[in-house]
Amino acid sequence: MKKKYYIYEMKLGSLNILSIILLIIMFIITYFLFKILNIKNIEIDLYKLIVLYLVYVIIHELLHSLSYVLHGAKFKNIIYGLYIEKGVAYTLCKQNISRKNILNSLLFPLFYIGIITYIIGLIISNVYLVVLSILNISGCSGDIIMFMFIKKLDKNIEYSEFDNPTRFAIYSKEKINSKHFGLKYIGEEDKLIKNEMNKLYISKLSYVFLICVFICLVLVFV
User: Fold this and answer.
1) What is the largest CA-CA distance in the chain?
2) Angle, CA of 143, 146 and 147, to the nearest 5°
3) pTM reported for the whole predicted model
4) Do the strands 158-161 and 167-172 form a parallel or antiparallel pair, or are they unpaired?
5) Which residues pair with 167 in a beta bridge?
């Protein structure tokens, strides 16, 4: 059977629901852990937290790209983007990558600046690190959904990304159109069009968002 690209789109509503669930679960767990560990100083500067979270988002995407490269992708094929209209910051790879590569890449930020930093934050009683780790874990809902989906596929499939940051494709000989929570099956193609995959893409609304963030930071810190 000829290989084809089976295209899926992430359901942003389902991702948001899972994010909220993860957020609630992690804050409940943290509440009891703080009591057990006798962590009492939990005052947080909201503006400082927002700035640190923006840095965390950047690190999150850089870790995705680092994992891509460590597991076989070429750095020149990595691109970054911000698409406020769809509520996503993203890292994409122009080349097809292996199942092993994408599985590792999906979990990289969750593990290193989610689970590991959460544990470190508890050990050193750093509330900012704990909260940032929780927000990152919550923001990994899409990564978790995709991981669970790709994990059950054949090891010989390839993963491919293209112009739309909320869509991806599975390149496979076997027909793939199984249903999965948080994902919508779009259809199949013999070839993917990747004409607009610039090295760095920032949508028009994202520019407005970044300008507003910059103005707020100036007003707060200057």
Assistant:
1) 63
2) 80
3) 0.88
4) antiparallel
5) 9
Domain that holds residue 48: 4-221
DSSP, residue by residue, 133-155: HHHHHHHTHHHHHHHHHHHTS-T
Structure tokens at 113: 């600046």
Q: What pLDDT is stored for residue 221 in this prediction?
A: 63
> How many domains does the chain contain in total?
1
Please, what are the averages of pLDDT over each run of 10 residues along the chain (222 residues)? 90 92 96 91 85 90 95 92 79 93 96 97 95 96 95 94 89 85 92 72 71 71 62
Residues 121, 214, 13, 94, CA torsion sign: negative
Instruction: Return the number of other C-beta atoms located less than 10 Å from residue 18's C-beta.
Output: 18
Rounded CA-CA distance 61/70 in Å is 14
Which pLDDT value is given to residue 196? 64
